[in-house]
From TrEMBL:
Gene: AlNc14C86G5511
Start and end residues of each Thioredoxin domain: 73-159
Superkingdom of source: Eukaryota
Coiled-coil zones: 15-64
Residue ranges crossing the lipid bilayer per the database entry: none
Source species: Albugo laibachii Nc14
InterPro entries: Thioredoxin-like_sf (IPR036249), Thioredoxin_domain (IPR013766)
Keyword flag Cell division: no
Protein name: Uncharacterized protein AlNc14C86G5511
Keywords: Coiled coil
Length: 230
């Protein structure tokens, strides 16, 4: 898929969301301007109750594994995860693929910042049933899941710019366009624009800066266990 078309489509989706949020803010401001002291107190109480409810939800999500990137060992863990969490991002990796390590770093940062979504990874070589079920033929692959249904499969990374330098912010921006997480940052100007979000370590930043701007050489998936049998 043409990367410019993908970027344009995502941009339209984000602008539409921003327009709706702006309309909501305008409506709220008009209500506050016309409210008396008693009504303002009711609004304050409702806001406090919403904050308490949000805190309870966040606590429940953390108890389910949200807030961190988890590596699954067994296939049945995958089904347990998608039953418990409404939004799930699953990275199918192989240990020998260097680009999977890059994906892991992005997902670790997103998991910490977006409690609304569960982020997990699973070794594709140890999950043959899921690989066949989802039609995975390229590594890295990322399954975007909502309400136990796969709504999008990223086979390889062409839709993320085809470069290993795509930013965590752009990945978050892309996931938000698929309604998998809530992205409140600015629209990335390019695949590599980090928008000043999602902290990286000094080591990661130095490594990222020193790398040449190369195009990904993606890996066609195969089952290493089958190769050993031949």
């Amino acid at each position: 898929m043409n990367t410019e078309i993908v970027a344009a489509a995502i941009g339209e989706k984000v602008l539409e969301t921003l327009e709706k949020e702006e309309q909501h803010i305008d409506t709220t401001l008009r209500q506050l301007e016309n409210a008396d002291d008693e009504e303002l107190e009711r609004i304050r109480e409702k806001r406090l109750e919403r904050m308490k409810e949000q805190a309870r939800k966040m606590q429940a999500l953390r108890a389910q594994g949200h807030g961190e990137y988890t590596t699954l060992v067994e296939t049945n863990e995958f089904f347990d995860v998608i039953k418990k969490s409404e939004y799930v991002v699953t990275h199918f990796f192989t240990p020998a693929n260097a680009f999977c390590v890059t994906i892991n770093g992005h997902l670790q940062r997103l998991a910490a910042a977006h409690l609304e979504t569960r982020f997990v990874g699973i070794n594709a070589e140890k999950a043959q049933f899921l690989v066949e079920k989802l039609g995975i033929w390229m590594i890295p692959s990322i399954a975007l899941i909502k309400d136990q249904k796969v709504v999008k499969m990223l086979q390889g990374l062409d839709e993320l710019g085809g470069t290993e330098k795509f930013s965590t912010a752009f990945l978050a921006y892309f996931l938000s366009s698929q309604n998998i997480l809530k992205y409140n940052g600015s629209v990335p100007e390019s695949f590599t624009d980090d928008c000043g979000l999602y902290r990286t370590t000094l080591v990661e930043s130095a490594k990222h800066k020193d790398q040449p701007n190369t195009t990904l050489r993606q890996t066609v998936f195969y089952d290493s266990d089958l190769e050993d049998e031949n």
